[in-house]
Amino acid sequence: MNKLNAKELRKTPPKEDDLKEIKRNPIYIVADRIFDTYNIGSLFRLADAISAEKVFLCGDMEYPPSSKIHKSAVGTEEWVPWTTASSALQAVRELKKEGVQIIAVEQDPRSIPYTLLPIRCYLPCAIVVGHETDGVSKEVLDLSDIIVELPMFGVNKSFNVWGSAAIIAYKILESLE
Questions:
Q1: pLDDT at position 123, please?
Q2: Cα angle at 103 between 67 and 145, to 5 degrees?
């Protein structure tokens, strides 16, 4: 694991040859109508950190190029593989056809605690996170192979979009070690 200082962390974009050498993990991130550009940019940073296969930006939301996304992504949107889809449902259907397991992060009667996520049997997988107020759409939840949620012990009963995705992504990465 590389240990970098603050200046090294924000260096110029990698060279094309560096990008070709990156081993991608079989993890996709599906953003379902994310409203806050900070969350969108942070999902790009997460995708870069975990070396995700691809990010899907779905539905009515802001897309790069965007100065707001760029600021929170610290430029990672320029080299992380990403695409758009008219809806998360479209992206999930496409991924399922390719044999990708769908893991939605949402509070739902069908959800299980993220600690019970049986990781080894869920690769390749897609982590689906939803709109900050409306959550992951019902249609996507219905197509998901598993729905996980994070325990909420305080007054607030929801967690940040990118933070939720990060917890699940790193839980998945634990199984790859």
A1: 86
A2: 145
Dihedral pair phi/psi, residue 56, rounded to 5°: -110, 120
Residue 151 and residue 32 in contact, taking contact as beta carbons nearer than 8 Å = no
Q: Residue 14 — very low, low, confident or very high, per pLDDT cuts 50/70/90?
A: low
Q: What is the pLDDT of residues 132-143, one digit of tens each?
A: 999 999 999 999
Domains and CATH numbers, the chain: 23-174 (3.40.1280.10)
Beta bridge partners of 58: 32, 85
The DSSP symbol for 62 reads -
Strand partners, 54: 28
Contact present, 51 and 68 (Cβ < 8 Å): no
Sequence-distant (≥ 6) Cβ neighbours of residue 52 within 8 angstroms:
24, 25, 27, 28, 29, 46, 80, 81, 169
Q: Which residue bears the tokens 């990698």?
A: 14
Section 127-136 average pLDDT: 96
Closest to 172 (Cα-Cα) out of 109, 107, 105:
105
Return the minimum-mean-pLDDT range out of 55-64, 94-103, 112-121, 149-158.
Answer: 112-121
Angstrom distance (rounded) from CA 128 to CA 161: 10
CA distance 97 to 1: 34
Half-sphere exposure of 42 (CA within 13 A, CB side): 14
